[in-house]
Predict the 3D structure of the following.
Amino acid sequence: MRSQKYYVLMNTEPFKKLLEFTSPINECFKSDGKQIYLVGGIVRDVCAGLNDTFNLDLDFTTDATPDEIKRIIQPIAESVWLAGQQFGTIGAQVNGKTIEITTHRSESYVSESRKPVVTFSTDLSEDLSRRDFTINSMAINLETGKLIDPFNGLRDLQLKILRTPLDPHISFSEDPLRMMRAARFISRFNLTLDKGIKESVNELRERLSIVSNERIRDELNKLLITPDPNTGFKFLLKTKLYESFFPELAGCRRQHQIRYLRHDHCIRLAALLLHSTPETRKNRLKDLKYSNREIDTIHNLISASQMILKQPMGNPQYRKWYLHAGENRQGSIEIASIQRAARRKITAIQRQGRHLNQELEDYTPPFTGSEIISILEMPQGPEVGEVLQLLENMFIESGPVSNQEALDFLAEWRERKDN
C-alpha cells in the first residue's frame, strides 16, 4: 500500500520538477528497450521531505550495460565521462546537471583487497538488496513516478530506524565502509539502530582496515558536517570502530559540542584535535589523505584558537593573533568558544577588535622583500625574511609603523650586524 506521506510528496512542485527533468533520460532508455530508475540519496531525501533536493547530483540504475548506457545517453548529453566504467558507472552532464548511471550490480570486497569486485545484474531488486541501508534501497520508476521499496525503507525512514536490507553481517562484509556510514545516517536523520547492527559492527570492525583511507576520510567528512554528529561519534566510540582511523576521538573531551560549530569539516576536525600534539595531528591527517591545504588550515585553526585560550589579550597579543589567524580568525574563535574557560577571553578579543580591526585591516609591511634588499644592499636569502618578521613584530608591539621609523630600524639593524 502506498504511503500517504510519499503520495503527498509526489504532488509537490520539486518532485514534479524532478520527473520533468528526468523524462528525456527515461525516453532515451525506453526507446532502446531498457529500464532506468532514480536511486540513491535523492530518493531518500525526497521521501524525508527535505528541501532543495533538485540541486543534488542524480544517480540512476539500469539494466543496460555500461557500453549501452554510453551509447544511449550520448545524444542528449553535453559531455560523457568513463572514469567509473569498470564499476558499471557512466557519468554525464545533461542540461547542465551532473548525473551518474550505473548498471544494476552487486559488489563486495574479497579477502584483503581494497577494491570491490563488481558483478552486473539485470534485476533491480538484487541491486537494491546490495545497498547499505533500507532507507537507501528505494528507487523511483521514471515512467510512472512510483516508489519501488522492496525492503520497506520508507517505513524505516518514518519510524526513524536504521536497518540493512540483508543481514547486517552480509551487508558490512560486502563493504565495511557501511559501518561508518551508519554513524552518519543516525546523526543526520536522528535514527535508532535496528537490532543486530551494533553487534555486527563489534564483530566486523577490524574489516574496515581493507577500505582505502581516502574513502574513510570522505565518510568522516560527511559525518562531521551533519548538523549534530554527536550520536555518530557515540556509535563510533561504543563499537570501537574509531580505533583504526581516528583514535584521538577517545581523548576528545568536548565532541558533544561540535554541533555548535559551523558545518565545516576543517573547523570541526580542528576542534576534535585541539589537544593533540602537532606531530600526532600531522600524522593522523596525512594517514587519512587530507590535502596539504586542509592540513595547513587545521593546524592554523588549532594554533590560533590556542592563542586565545593561553594568552592574555592586550593590544600586542591581539595583533599577533589577528595576523597569525588570517582567514581562520572566526573559525578559531568558534573553536575556542566551546571551551568554557575561554568565554572571558573571547569577550576581550571582541572588545580589542572594536578599536584595532581598522588598523589591522589597513596594515601592510612598510617595505617589501625586494625593497629591503635594495635599502640594505644585501643578497636575497633567509635574512630578508628575518627582517620582514622583525618589522612585523614592531607593528605587533606598537601599532602602525611609519616609513621613517622603519628606515631607522633598518639602519640600527645593519649597524648591529656590522658590529
